[in-house]
Amino acid sequence: MLGLMQGQPLLISSLIMFAERHHGDTQIVSRRVEGDIHRYTWADVGRRARQVARALDAQKLDFSDRVATLAWNGYRHLELYFGVSGSGRVLHTINPRLHPDQIAWIAEHAEDRVLCFDATFLPLVQAVHGRCPGIRQYVMLCDAKALPADTGIPNLVAYEDWIGRHPAVYDWPEFDENSASSMCYTSGTTGNPKAALYSHRSTLLHAYAAALPDVMGLSARDSVLPVVPMFHVNAWGIPYSAALTGCKLVFPGGALDGKSVYELIEAEGVTYAAGVPTVWQMLLGHMGPNKLRFSTLNRTVIGGSACPPAMITAFREQYGVEVLHAWGMTEMSPLGTLCTLKNKHQSLPEDEKMKIRLKQGRAIYGVDMRIVGDDGETLPWDGKTYGDLQVRGPWVVREYFKGEGGDPLREGWFPTGDVATIDADGYMQITDRSKDVIKSGGEWISSIDIENIAMAHPAVAMAACVGMPHPKWDERPLLVAVKKPGAEVSREELLAFYEGKTAKWQVPDDVVFVDAIPLGATGKMLKTRLREQLKDYRLPSV
User: Fold this and answer.
1) Which of 78, 286, 337, 487 could form an SS bridge with 361, CB 3.0 to 4.6 Å?
2) Lowest-pLDDT range of 106-120, 436-450, 456-470
3) Is the pLDDT of residue 524 over 60?
4) Residue 381 falls in the annotated catalytic set
5) Helices 12-22 and 200-210, interaxial angle, to 10°?
6) Quick one: 319 and 442 in the same domain?
7) Does 174 qualify as catalytic in the annotation?
8) Where residue 502 sits, what CATH number does that domain have?
């Protein structure tokens, strides 16, 4: 016997309809690429999102066609979040920090039909458009007077003209809630990036879960600053949870330096912020010497990389801001855990509370976790035994777009590539990574890609790339190289060899030349032994 409830599908359009109707006068504030501060309301977002949908209809885009973005956090990007997905198309947010070759490959692999981009990224679009024949329309997120002449980009139009020619009257279509809504490519895998393809259902369930009190705890009383980029796993789902709760949104654009972020927090009464540790290091670095204080900020979610203990202490003890340690990944939409204390922990000494806060946290409702040994058997939750972390849930990927990489699941569980412990209270802590990718400032760097470039140098016989601790970026890549007999190459020459082959921020910080790299019985490099050999090495200060 089935229940007798109405069968309304969970669609992203319902979020903007709700925000527009019930929180229509709540502000959305953006620092624009143009340099000024723009402000309007959720009602305006809804109106202009409908114009986006009409513009896509006018382009004759089919259902599920992909619309790409190369954009900072701002109000126009927010309109695309709802207008693209709400009309039944798929929003594809591209990371502009990738190398142009990777961006061109991703755009073609995704079969993007429209590309919307901020003026900042005009040179990047000029560099890749010739390799993206599938894109029919280029839209620069600006008004007509700001659109440069003679860009060399075909079918380029200003965003305000593109949507402005259409009325704001539009009936959001209803369709299967399992339809694709957005996609994001992850560089946390070896080889070419793979795309996580989110659905309307998974996105709304994630938005509900993220807003829970023991997760992000968003409400209509909050003024929220998402510093985490909207091109990075949908800004951790904050745009959707913000519409669901009706909170004020404050967008920083591309100005992520400590001074700019602090001024925006104070000017807009921000109560809640979210981002990676690197941004908060710059913020604290600006505040300390200038003896500044927060007047409204009371909590921040920090994820993307492990949060240093000193940062948690500084936020809590010096500035009265609660730090919520979070963990997730692109394949998880992205939230998996968030660290908040339980009632029984409130009476613990501060040093005991800190031990808990340093963990990645408890699974939020909708995410199931387990750790397994090399034999695939489930391991105990005792806080000591570590194993490969696996997850499952309604917003965890089943497979990658176009079946890239085959079936990633293990008996229905997704292997995260992390090694972790889980204690009796369900708090998970990452202890290592089973893959050899490197996480720098919240972004993944593939060690294999770095090694392959080095191996292409005529003087290099063998190369290994390992992540080394860095005070600002969490990790930075170190290249360990073996020269060919009789060949010579300097550190500077080898680092210069990377120019034009990968993004600048992915280039190794240093090179160490060795006589041999330790190998296992099967010929694989033993990076654990290599790291042991390098335990006393320190990256050069920059």
Assistant:
1) 337
2) 436-450
3) no
4) no
5) 50
6) no
7) no
8) 3.30.300.30
